[in-house]
TrEMBL record:
It comes from Ramlibacter tataouinensis. Keywords: Membrane, Transmembrane, Transmembrane helix. InterPro entries: DUF2069_membrane. The chain crosses the membrane at residues 20-41, 47-65, 72-88, 100-119. This is Membrane protein.
Amino acid sequence: MQDSAPIAAIPSPTVAATRWVAVGSLLALIVLGLAWELWLAPLRPGGSWLVLKVLPLCLPLSGLLRRRMYTYRWLSLMVWIYFTEGVVRATSDTGLSAKLAGVEVFLCLLLFTACVVHVRTRLKKAAPAS
């Protein structure tokens, strides 16, 4: 009896784990951005147009789920925009908004780390033995 999937199609445990950490932290950033700007601590009462900042975060979701290496690479660069926003707001805002900014910074670092480890692991596995 033969397996229907080739061995190369089965991801390593590290690749699978980093994929789910990346997807989870990306989804958490989306939910955090929506909740932050609509209900928890919007810039203006009743919500803020700053909620639109989560739209670019929705773009890479399908690429992560489909294991597109290119998506992991450019997302690891794009996440620094949100990291910068989090650092600025953590140091300039007060109260709940500053705490939410700290959570944003943590999620950005988690997402970046997951993307980098994912890409490095896949490249190392794909490199020819020398």
